[in-house]
Amino acid sequence: MLAALAFGFVIGHVRDADKMVFYQIHESIGATLFLVTLARLWWRWKHPPPPHPAIPRPMQYAANATHALLYLALLAQPLLGFIGSNAWGFPMAGPTAYLGFINQPPFMAKNEALGTLLLQLHQWLGWAIAALLLVHVAAVIVHQAIRRDGTLLRMV
Question: Can you give the pTM of this predicted structure?
Answer without folding.
Answer: 0.87
